[in-house]
Design goal:
Blueprint: E1 4-5, E2 10-12, H1 17-20, H2 30-37, H3 45-48, H4 63-78, E3 82-84, E4 90-97, E5 100-110, H5 111-115, E6 119-120, H6 127-140, E7 142-143, E8 147-151, H7 155-167, E9 172-175, E10 181-187, H8 190-201, E11 206-210, H9 212-224, E12 230-237, E13 243-244, E14 246-250, H10 258-265, E15 269-273, E16 285-290, E17 293-299, H11 314-323, E18 338-342, H12 346-355, E19 361-364, H13 370-378, E20 389-390, E21 401-402
Parallel strand pairs: 6-11, 8-12
Antiparallel strand pairs: 1-5, 2-3, 4-5, 4-10, 5-12, 7-21, 8-11, 9-10, 13-20, 14-18, 14-19, 15-17, 16-17, 16-19
């Protein structure tokens, strides 16, 4: 079985993509999604976060939520808001965020390849989120939120994708509310599809950047529905993908005063007061904001185990030397005393949360590098939670893959 294959996708009717395609389900709270979609009955949020159509008091995992999602999805197909391509296709998906552009291929990725670790993961999943995505996809008989994959850049694959884009204007192009331009080319030509499939087959492996819960859900569904043996994904070349910092904020100092906390941090770090916000420009350097003051924290290289792909990550070092021993935070996935600030919100958002009194301290980190992610995945290891933040985000509902 090949690594990827074409599929007959469901897409918004011509000119409706801006109205239908929605942010990923996991970057919005239910309240935010309800507000965003309140004047737009065609937003895919009515499917991906169907609780927004129901009483807010209803639990988000109530059976009625999934039944409502199915009804809204079927309504969108029945009324022609979504239209299915007549033949199996692949799709070229380009996202432009300012001057930075990344272009990937929308595919049906093999569950068998995921099971054999040819499609590699680097994160653990949360049971509640995995259950939610499994129930939604199983109820819809569809994958609507694409898994973000990364492949090794090759000239042959880049050249073919470029030729497809240059041959004709995109079938759909729109600018989302956040300023990101989304463009989609439908690849219907059989020789081009065969070429793309063959070029992907030359990849020894693909890497999951974002979408671990969706890929895990697809594997679970395939166990009970063997014909559902592929899942929706977009694969981008590693040369175009950028990881942004995933910063941390903590609710309290574990009983310490700011002065006592800084003294404890100084046992392993050089602590230097800064005149402004600290945005680390290299590994093993951190920013700390506490008591309305920024500090630069520099870790002695001798404290870093360069032989361990996970232990040498900055997120691991922060955990090892500060979060666990000083602040008593031992479970990043469940501890309510820590929160995470990702993406382009930057250091301003960190200082605001501390100054508002909601948090006691904030840490800015140097972004995890893509080579580090791949090294962890290649070693069959798992990164700490919230190690990577990818932008721009892929839209739900731009292309939907159904299965029997």
């Amino acid at each position: 079985m090949t690594l990827i294959q074409p599929f007959a996708g469901w897409r918004p009717r011509l000119g409706w993509a801006a109205r239908v395609a929605a942010p990923p389900y996991d970057v919005l709270s239910s309240a935010e999604a309800r507000l965003l979609a309140q004047d737009n009955p065609d937003s895919f949020l009515h499917v991906s976060k169907a609780e927004i159509n129901l009483d807010p008091a209803l639990p988000p995992d109530d059976a009625l939520v999934y039944q409502t999602a199915k009804e809204r999805f079927e309504q969108m197909r029945h009324t022609g808001v979504l239209i299915q391509d007549a033949t199996p296709c692949l799709y070229i998906y380009r996202l432009a965020m300012g001057e930075r552009v990344q272009t990937g291929v929308v595919v049906a990725a093999s569950v068998a390849a995921y099971r054999s670790h040819r499609i590699r993961k680097h994160e653990l999943t949360r049971p509640d989120k995995e259950n939610d995505r499994t129930r939604l996809a199983d109820t819809l008989s569809a994958h609507s939120g694409p898994v973000f994959l990364i492949h090794r850049q090759t000239a042959a694959l880049d050249d073919l994708v470029t030729r497809i884009q240059q041959a004709a204007p995109p079938d759909e192009s729109f600018q989302a509310d956040d300023g990101i331009q989304h463009s989609l080319w439908v690849v219907r030509d059989t020789p081009q599809i065969d070429q793309l499939v063959a070029l992907f087959e030359q990849q020894s492996r693909l890497y999951i950047a974002d979408g671990h819960h969706r890929s895990a859900a697809a594997e679970r569904i395939c166990t009970s529905r063997p014909t559902a043996d592929h899942f929706l994904a977009v694969s981008f070349p590693d040369s175009q993908v950028c990881i942004l910092a995933y910063n941390r904020v903590v609710r309290d100092l574990n009983g310490l005063t700011p002065a006592e906390f800084l003294k404890a941090v100084g046992q392993h770090f050089q602590v230097t007061p800064a005149t402004g916000a600290v945005r680390p420009d290299r590994p093993h350097c951190f920013g700390l904001y506490v008591a309305r003051q920024w500090y630069r924290l520099t870790l002695d290289p001798g404290q870093v185990d360069a032989t361990d792909a996970v232990a040498r990550l900055d997120v691991s070092l922060l955990d090892r030397y500060i979060l666990q021993p000083i602040l008593g935070i031992h479970d990043l996935r469940r501890d309510q005393r820590i929160d995470f600030v990702g993406g382009s919100r930057g250091t301003t958002a960190l200082a605001q949360r501390v100054d508002a009194g909601h948090m006691a301290a904030a840490f800015s980190l140097f972004p995890t590098q893509l080579a580090e992610l791949m090294a962890v995945a290649d070693a069959d290891q798992i990164m700490p939670p919230k190690s990577t933040w990818f932008e721009p985000k892929l839209r739900d509902g731009l292309v939907v893959q159904t299965f029997a």
